[in-house]
Amino acid sequence: MTSLEEIKSFSECIVSFMGPDGYPYSYPTNFTVEDGEIYVGKSSLTPRDGRVTLTFNHITPLPSGGYTDRRYVTVKGVASDAGGRLRVAVEKIYGWDEKKTPFPEYCEISVPQSRRYVEELVKTYGPKARPKMSIPSLLFRSTRFPFLVATATPVLIANMLALYAGRFDPTLFLLTLVGASLIHLGLNMSNDYFDTKLGADNINRTPTPFSGGSRVLQYGLLTPSAVAGLFTLFYIAGGLIGIYLAVLRGPIPILSILAAGVLISILYTAPPVKLAYRGLGEIAVAVGFGPVIVLGSYYVQTQELTLSALLASIPIGIFIALILYINQIPDAPYDLAAGKRTLVTRLSREGVINLYKALLAVSYLFIAIPAAAGLAPPTAAIALATIPMAAKTVRMVRENYGNPYMMIPAMGANIRLATWTGLLHALGFTLGALARIVAA
Amino acid sequence: MVNADEVREVLDGALVSVLSYDDGSGGVSSHPMLPLYNPENKKLYFTSSILFSRKIQKIKRNPKVSVIFTGRNFIRASKYHVVLVRGDAKIYEKDLHEGWEWLLSLWRKKEPYIDAFLKQRIALPLFWERAVIEVTPAETLVWEGGDTSREPVKVML
Fold it and tell me: How far is B58 from chain A (nearest CA, A)?
């Protein structure tokens, strides 16, 4: 909300009105604010009907080029003669101050206007007038491709654990990785599709690279049917690889795990179950990216399910769920408004941080105890090296909690924490395997 | 006496100007915008993201516009003058994706890091879908030295 008080911080006012020749006329002048009215200097030309627009602009150029401290206020009103000045009775006041509304949010608020404008253009120029993005960029954005580390890491842990158990086939590893990744891409796109359909993504005005969805539907870069088509394709392709692996390595366990994975990923946001809307999304993700992927990948290599594999799946499952958990903090007000009752929306700020710390501690315990108890090689404890990184990430989350844009580094740090811990855990199993080979 | 070269220097050196147009109800809407002056055809250009496209729709209905260059801090020129360009606008909106990119050489002079932003266009895709507003000056009024207590003088660009 822009107030009259704000214009006092500007040094100059531009008075504009429609000139008698039909062209707008403008001039800069000084101004004062007195009793809710604005007094501005006169020029030789005055508005015939008294209607004026005042622009207060503050855009400070930087020596390197460009601007900083961007803000402006526009006042619309009616001017009348007040001696040597014009008195402007304010009718409407609006503007933008990037300190109050950061530029990305300002852009997001304006998306509906751009959609209306494009629809008008399409009537004149056809569909070619729509916003464009190269196919690789569009796929990168719509699938939220970088999040595939959340699949690659547990697959790697399972395969390195299999290596430690003395059984590793690189072809099976690649097939598992590609299959699981395709299902993850399907999950990301179906999540966008249903979050848009259920309204949670539409009302989000502060999306970030890590939260608020891919926005391809909100921006009109893809149609809902195209997104539905793509996620169906990803699920089918991932499912076919799963079925192939099941035929190759053991139908019942692999098909059961595959079915569980696909079901969790679809029911995550799809009605009527929509786990994420019922505070069960984090658990679903922990199970899906932990035991489901790790046990499934491990079984593909070893054709057995072990306690070691189950224990190895727990920390990575929690870490991946914590990516979602922290990324939901900026979305919380919009999720709440859309009835998406994620865990974050159900807890206080302190509650969210405390649960975050507790779950990190549990994850590290599930790395340390198996290593100490002989259920994982001692080298698996190398993953504990990220504890200082975890402490720093908790501080970052706490300090920037609730500010979507200030939280971006914290969300990034949290993803790096999960990735590095997972990769070090996998490295720990690899080193254990190498030690066994050397000892033999 | 102010000369056309000094005025062109103001247009070329301004980091911001204020574009005004008919708001559709007989009043005027005004927006601060980055002006791009092309000395070859003596026209002013603006690019407008489709996110902020309301002005495009209004200008299409009434193309008579004015652009004011004011504020010593906003203008890099050897001599400061306040300049008001009044003219006729034409909108180019057929190719929002690339149709404005020919203006990048002019834009780069004012915002040298624009290319770095452009490389990240995937992050703000709609911001980089842009229409072009071309203003052909009909009249240029200049307040010499920025002294608006005096009458502006007309200058032919």
Answer: 11
Question: Using the 8-state DSSP alphabet, how is residue B75 labeled?
Answer: B
Q: Is the pLDDT of residue A66 over 70?
A: no
Within 8 A by CB and 6+ apart from A276, the residues are A191, A268, A269, A284, A340, A342
What are the structure tokens assigned to A152, written together?
């690659």
User: Residue A264 to residues A157, A273, A418: CA-CA distances in angstroms?
Assistant: 21, 10, 21
CATH number at residue B105: 2.30.110.10
Q: Establish if B124 belongs to a structural domain.
A: yes
Report CA-CA distances (Å) from A256 to A237, A241, A251, A259, A262.
Answer: 17, 14, 8, 5, 10
Instruction: Find chain B residues with C-beta within 8 A of A118's C-beta.
Output: 50, 96
pLDDT at res. A64: 66
Task: Give the gap in angstroms from C-alpha A24 to the nearest C-alpha of chain B.
Answer: 5
Residue A25's closest chain B neighbor by CA? B66
pLDDT bracket for residue A65 (50, 70, 90): low
Q: Cα separation of B56 and B104, whole Å?
A: 20
For residue A114, give every residue at least 6 positions away whose Cβ sits within 8 Å of its Cβ, in sequence order, or none: A131, B49, B50, B51, B53, B126, B129
At residue A229's C-alpha, the angle toward residues A223 and A231, to 5°, is: 105
Q: Is residue B65 included in any domain, yes or no?
A: yes
**DSSP state at residue B124:** S
Q: Which of B100, B99, B106 is nearest to B41 (CA)?
A: B106
Is pLDDT above 90 for A46?
no
Strand pairing of B153-154 and A85-97? unpaired
Q: In what order do the strands lie in the sheet with A31-34?
A: A24-29, A13-18, A51-61, A67-82, A85-97, A37-41, A31-34
Integer Cα distance of A410 and A414 in angstroms = 6
Residues in chain A closer than 8 A to B112 (CB atoms): 64-66
Q: Which strand (E) or helix (H) includes residue B83?
A: strand B82-92
pLDDT for A287: 97
Q: Identify from A18, A30, A137 which residue to disrupt to test chain B contact, counting B C-beta atoms within 10 A and taking the largest count.
A: A18
- Beta-carbon separation of B126 and A114 below 8 A: yes
Q: CA–CA separation, A155 vs A14, rounded Å? A: 62
List, in sequence order, every residue forming a beta bridge with B83; answer none if it has no partner: B69, B142
Which structural domain range is residue B13 located in? Answer: 4-147
Per residue in B53-73, pLDDT (tens digit) is 999 999 999 999 999 999 888
The domain tally of chain B equals 1
Q: How many residues does chain A have?
A: 440
In chain A, pLDDT over 90 holds for what percent of residues?
Answer: 88
B154: in domain: no
Phi, psi of B78 (to 5 degrees): -65, -35
- The answer to whether position B157 is within a domain reads no
* DSSP state string for A337-365: HTT---HHHHS-HHHHHHHHHHHHHHHHH
- Which residues of chain A neighbour B137 with C-beta distances below 8 Å? none
Q: What pTM was estimated for this model as a whole?
A: 0.89
